[in-house]
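Per reviewer request, we include the raw input and output of the structure prediction for the construct analysed in the revised manuscript.
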Amino acid sequence: MPAAAAIKVMVVDDQTSMRAMIRRALQDLGFKDIRDKGSAIEALAAVKTDRVHLIISDYNMPEMDGLEFLEAVRKDEVIGKTVFIMLTGSADKEVVQKAAALGVNNYVVKPFAPAALKEKIERVFGELV
């Protein structure tokens, strides 16, 4: 049973307001080490040099979308096992299926309640304390 405070998180979303909302939800759940980036390209470089335990990434982003980001993470032998939760604005079956095929650990449909995010994280890490 991991303590949320011990889990390092990278939040990736091109919308500043969404990153702030996710950060607040994570802080309310007890997470302390939360980083964020506005693009998957920036986040990929950051997690390669400063590893995290959990990536929470939006699907719909310019330059590199969430699926491309997930694929790049999974192909990297150093960060390839990092827990990855995808945020999507729709429950588009095709996106969900592609993410599953690429090895996503879970996904959350936006808008979401903090309790839903907690449940998705706990499905991967176990109950948070």
